[in-house]
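[step 3/7] fold_predict: job queued, chain A
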Amino acid sequence: MSTRLYKPGQSICAVDGFSSRDFTKHKYLRIYHADYGGGFFVNLLYVINGILFAQRNNLIPFVYISDPKLPFYDSLQGENIWEYYFEPITDINYRTILPEEVCEIVHKQIASHRFHEHYRHGIQVYPYKAGIYSKKRFSYDSRWYLEMRKKANKIINQYIRIKPEILRKIDNFVQQKFYDNHMLGVHVRATDKLAGIGGRQILSEEYFPHIDRYLDENPRAKIFCATDSPRELKKMIARYADSCCYYDALRDEHNIFKLSLSSNYRKGEDALIDSLLLSKCNFLIKSSSAVSEFSVYFNLGLHNKSLDLQYCGNYG
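[step 4/7] structure written:
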């Protein structure tokens, strides 16, 4: 008599709440992602929240993200998108476990920009108050950001291991471009950023006074610029010339991850590399964006060495 094993991607028991269900009959939590409109770091956000959920419910988590509709799916890289960029978060083999031992969080709950409102133990990259960016005046909540960042940083250090080949690309870039320079990281999120989710777009012209002030105070500093917009990168290069370096990432004014490319894999790799390079800078100037917020998750020291322009001019 053969044993029926769990098949990656098969339909399994969906958790229909965060605290009311008894999980004693389940052993594993499958973490997945089914938000077709989310960017690369939405994947990582869901994984971190899934791990936090698993920890509180004595479940063993594993990540299996596989859907050809997702913008980063690349059949040449394999079936599990997570393992394109990261090592497995635990050492279990999900092909050898029983389906009745596995549960997952339903998409409508975990796939939310306001996840923290549904599950208070989770994290999110944007402020917890719904509609905060629609207000004329709002302030930076350092305590809230630090709470989110500490939780994320702890999970990253404990579970998230980036593929060695990606780390080698980062190390090579740092050796070639950063040298021993004092580096100012600048992230300009443009293209399709939605005001109702992450706030209005903050473009290069609003960065310039803050960058100029920083360079006046740190005359030997160099700039690393990360942006999804070719137009914004050109503005930075035109103003700062050889003092500005950047990674040769895919860029498009319509947001590159929504375009059909021969290598969907590279969409994710470029975003991850940009974020990690920003994390290696001495100071960070940013706006609300998962890319640069994860830079602080990777390097918690940037919490007190960063400026979020999303809040500048919005409070007294």
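[step 5/7] annotate
The chain is about 35% helix and 10% strand.
The mean pLDDT is 85.
exit 0
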